[in-house]
Specification:
single chain, about 350 residues, alpha+beta, six-stranded antiparallel beta sheet, three-stranded antiparallel beta sheet, binds adenosine-5'-diphosphate, binds 2-acetamido-2-deoxy-1-O-phosphono-alpha-D-glucopyranose, binds magnesium ion
C-alpha cells in the first residue's frame, strides 16, 4: 500500500508534523503540493515524474550541486542564499529524495513572500524575468558542466524531436494523424529550419553552456510586495545546452498575452514590445558572455523553441497524450495551435526582432 502525502512528508527533516498538502501550480510533468506543518512552516512537496526523469538520484545530485554553487555566489554578492535559490530538505536518513514504490518525492523550503505569474501583466514584469534568467546564466557560467547528469537526453535537440514527430505520425497509434494533416504539413515544411541550431552547435558555431532549459515565466519567483525577481526555480532540466534556447523558451511562453493553451487561436499574438523588453533584460545581464553568433541567433532561437514545443505537443497528441498532463479533450492540440500561431507571427516579425537585438548589442 502506498503512503499518503503527509506520511511521506513526515519522512523528511521538516519542522513539526505535516498537517496538509494541497495541489499547487499547473506544471505539465511533476505534481506539486503546498505542504504545511503544525509549527506553521510551509514547504514545496513534489512527486517527481519518474517516467520522464528516469534517475531521480542523479537528478537530485544535479540540483544539489547547482544550488550549492549558486548559494556561494549569492552569499559573496551579499544576497540571501535561503531565498534566492532552492533549498533541498533531506529525508530523515539523509537522502535528497524519498522513494515510495515507483514514486520519488522531494521537499524544498517554501520561499516566503513570493508569487509566480502565468502571463505577465505588464512589460516591467517580463523585463524582470529576463534579468532573473540572464543572471542565472551568468552565475552558472563557470559551473563545471561535465559534472552534470543529462536529466533528459537530447532535450532541446530539435532535429531528434523532429524524428520523434515523424515516428509518431507513422505509428499513428490513436488514428489521429488524418485529422491533423494541416498541422503535420506545418511541421514538415519547416524540417530544414528544425536543424539550424543543432547543426551550428555540432559544427562548433554555437557553444554549449550550463543552461536552465525550461525558462517559463512561472519558473521565476517574484517578491510579493515589490514584484522584483527573487529566484529561478524548477531546476530539473539544468544541463549543458544553448544559452539562446533559454532566451527562446522565455519568448515562446511570455511574449504574448495569451495562455499557452488558449483555445481561440485568434487571441494569440506575438508581441514585439514584450520581445523588446525581454531582450533588453536578458542581454543586460548576460550579453557580455555571448558570442556574436549567439546574439545574432536570438530571434531564430525564439522561433525554434516555439516550433519545437508546438511539435512536441503535436507529437504527444498523436501518441495519445502520454507525456504532458492534459485537463481536457484536445488539450495538447490547443497547445500546439497556440505555438504554431506564434511561430507564424514570429516569422513575419523576424526583421523587427533582428533590429531589436541589434539595438541592445
Ligand atoms: P512544475 O514542474 O510543476 O512546473 P515547479 O518546480 O516549477 O514545478 O513548481 C511549481 C510552482 O510552485 C512554481 O511555478 C512556483 O509557483 C512554486 N514554487 C516552486 N518552488 C517553490 C519554492 N521553493 N518556494 C515557493 N514557491 C515555489
Ligand atoms: C514542461 O514541467 P513544466 O510544465 O515546467 C516541459 C517543458 C515544456 C513545457 C511547456 C521536462 O514544463 O519542456 O516547454 O512543459 N518540461 C519537460 O509548457 O518536458
Ligand atoms: Mg515550473
Amino acid at each position: 500500500m502506498s503512503l499518503s502525502n503527509l506520511e511521506i512528508a513526515n519522512s523528511f527533516q521538516i519542522s513539526g508534523q505535516a498537517i496538509s498538502a494541497e495541489p499547487y501550480s499547473c506544471g505539465h510533468i511533476n505534481d506539486t503540493f503546498l505542504l504545511k506543518t503544525d509549527t506553521g512552516e510551509k514547504y514545496i512537496l513534489q512527486r517527481i515524474n519518474t517516467s520522464v526523469f528516469k534517475n531521480a538520484e542523479a537528478l537530485m545530485n544535479n540540483i544539489m550541486s547547482v544550488t550549492n554553487f549558486l548559494k556561494e555566489k549569492i552569499l559573496r554578492a551579499g544576497g540571501d542564499p535561503s531565498r534566492e535559490t532552492l533549498s533541498i530538505i533531506l529525508t530523515n536518513d539523509g537522502r535528497t529524495f524519498y522513494r515510495d514504490g515507483q514514486d520519488c518525492w522531494r521537499i524544498y523550503t517554501f520561499i516566503r513572500d513570493s508569487v509566480t505569474l502565468q502571463t505577465c501583466e505588464n512589460e516591467e514584469q517580463f523585463y524582470a524575468s529576463a534579468c532573473a534568467f540572464g543572471r542565472f546564466q551568468k552565475l552558472l557560467a563557470d559551473f563545471p558542466a561535465d559534472s552534470l547528469y543529462e536529466s533528459i537526453p537530447a532535450f532541446h535537440n530539435t532535429k531528434s524531436r523532429y524524428n520523434d514527430f515523424e515516428w509518431a505520425v507513422s505509428e499513428d497509434v490513436c488514428g489521429r494523424a488524418a485529422s491533423v494533416a494541416r498541422e503535420i504539413a506545418f511541421v514538415r515544411s519547416r524540417r530544414d529550419f528544425a536543424a539550424t541550431l543543432v547543426d551550428m552547435q555540432e559544427n562548433g558555431d554555437l557553444p554549449l553552456r550550463v543552461t536552465h532549459n525550461d525558462t517559463k515565466l512561472n519558473n521565476v519567483l517574484f517578491d510579493s510586495s515589490t514584484m522584483s525577481p527573487i529566484a529561478v526555480v524548477d531546476l530539473d532540466t539544468v544541463m549543458p545546452g544553448l544559452s539562446i534556447n533559454d532566451f527562446g523558451d522565455s519568448i515562446r511562453f511570455g511574449a504574448t498575452h495569451a495562455a499557452e493553451d488558449e483555445p481561440d487561436v485568434d487571441k494569440v499574438h506575438f508581441e514585439i514590445d514584450l520581445f523588446d523588453c525581454y531582450t533588453r533584460g536578458f542581454l543586460g545581464e548576460c550579453g557580455a558572455l555571448l558570442t556574436e553568433n549567439e546574439k545574432k541567433m536570438l530571434p531564430v532561437a525564439a522561433m525554434m523553441m516555439t516550433f519545437e514545443c508546438g511539435m512536441r505537443f503535436l507529437t504527444d497528441y498523436l501518441n495519445g497524450d502520454t507525456y504532458f498532463k492534459i485537463h481536457r479533450e484536445n488539450h495538447n492540440l490547443d497547445r500546439c495551435h497556440t505555438q504554431f500561431k506564434l511561430v507564424s507571427d514570429m516569422e513575419k516579425a523576424k526583421d523587427l526582432m533582428d533590429a531589436v537585438v541589434r539595438k541592445y548589442c
